[in-house]
Amino acid sequence: MQRASHSPVIMWFRQDLRLEDNPALFEANKRGDLIPIYILDDINSKRDKMGAASRFWLHHALDSLNRSMGGKLKLFSGDPLELLPQIMGMSGAKSVFWNRCYEPWRIARDAKLKRNLDGAGYEVFSTNGSLLWEPWEIKKKDGSAYKVFTPYYKKGCLGAKSPRAPLPPIGNISFSPSCLEGSKLDDLGLLPNVEWYKSLKDRWDISETAALEQLARFTQNGLEGYMERRNFPADLGVSRLSPYLHFGQISSQNVWHIVESAAEQKNEKTRLNIDHFLRELVWREFSYYLLYHYPALPYSNLQERFNEFPWIRVSPELKAWQRGSTGYPLVDAGMRELWQTGYMHNRVRMVVASFLVKNLLVHWKCGADWFWDCLVDADLASNSAGWQWVAGSGADAAPFFRIFNPVTQSEKFDSEGKYILSYVPELTNLPKKYLHAPWLAPKPILDAAGIVLGLDYPNPIVDLKSSRSRALSAFQEQRARSARSQ
Ligand SMILES: Cc1cc2nc3c(=O)[nH]c(=O)nc-3n(C[C@H](O)[C@H](O)[C@H](O)COP(=O)(O)OP(=O)(O)OC[C@H]3O[C@@H](n4cnc5c(N)ncnc54)[C@H](O)[C@@H]3O)c2cc1C
User: Fold this and answer.
1) Does position 354 have pLDDT exceeding 60, yes or no?
2) How many Å lie between the centroid of ligand 1 and the Cα of residue 242?
């Protein structure tokens, strides 16, 4: 292939750690011989430094990307505002290519970086490598941003042009011989120094190939019945693509089109499942959309009236919740799944979040921070939007008075206790009937199961009925206060 440039071209990988369907890489590869780089840049972010599980994932994702490029990836750590001009200067590159990121601090930083590089005579090419629609493309008729998901989805997204088709395979990449000295992967210090992350390693195959295989498996076996099965945490009825999507090891465009094309061979019922799955993918878009239009989403209640809500920030119950020892088996199973695997099923995320912010009256930000540290798919947009949705303080949120009951949720979505027992084995000998609420089991049954409540498994840390009333009264009072102040 005739290359347009004789100078090397910098391909700056960010949240797009893949070779296939990577628009910036695709364009960069047409332009000239590549120097692929990655800059660990969260050092600049005071508030959104990556959590431990994300750092673990990133370590392996970078390792895998580097291998797929024959060891050519150059790693750096620091401020791209300083580093990138130096890299350009030292390598003799005249152009740099990247896919956009949408965290507010990255948007501001990238705008400045682009001005600086433009000013210094470099060519900067930035494009969309991770969203189906750019957040500024979807607007209401009057030009304002949507706040509610359904009209955003139905009028905004479905009325817009279809997500772009995946790019053709990248084929050969020609690398520039480079004198740049990057860091060693281990020197980035991404792996936590506690042993905990080793259990995560056994659970995940962290590579672009694994992402594509996971999607193929899901398209083959998971789409059928997705609508129903996605609610049952013991069922493998969801795609588990979220960490791959977050780190860009697979593109949302690719997922969209591969799933869409599966519809062509399937019946009407499967079509409904496919539409439902694509709709979930659009929830991810909506989260990014909210983050773009309301950059305070990760830090402040979008509904300001919640600023007066008496949420607690320091409480012993927060610790019990984090450890998975609340005495509510579904909540505990969820929190332990998170700790052991870096993932938690969506329904259980909603249940544990509701339990924290409503039954325990702990501020949603405390829950969001814990998720941020523990989730391998921790994502500023989806995590913040998810927590504000559950707390009732978000743009399009579940009403505060809708409080998930962890016992009825458990009976409904884990009736056999399969999910609970995977993470709360101390309840193994308890008859199924009591698995969802062990404190209701008569003493002889607990004795026969070898369980002493408070010793082998916790007593409930809070009473569901009274904590629900406490939350509802706090909500009523807050509502009355904000009505008075208007
Ligand atoms: C309190 C709370 C916190 C959350 N934090 C995160 C987070 O940090 N990162 C994250 O990726 N998701 C987050 N979610 C959304 C959702 O739980 C996960 O995206 C989903 O569980 C991932 O599993 P999956 O890939 O198997 O999903 P699937 O059901 O297979 O869905 C496919 C994809 O659609 C997207 N998606 C599905 N549901 C949602 C949703 N409700 N919001 C946004 N995107 C969605 C994800 O990218 C997901 O990978 C959170 C939800 C809640 C309630």
Assistant:
1) yes
2) 6
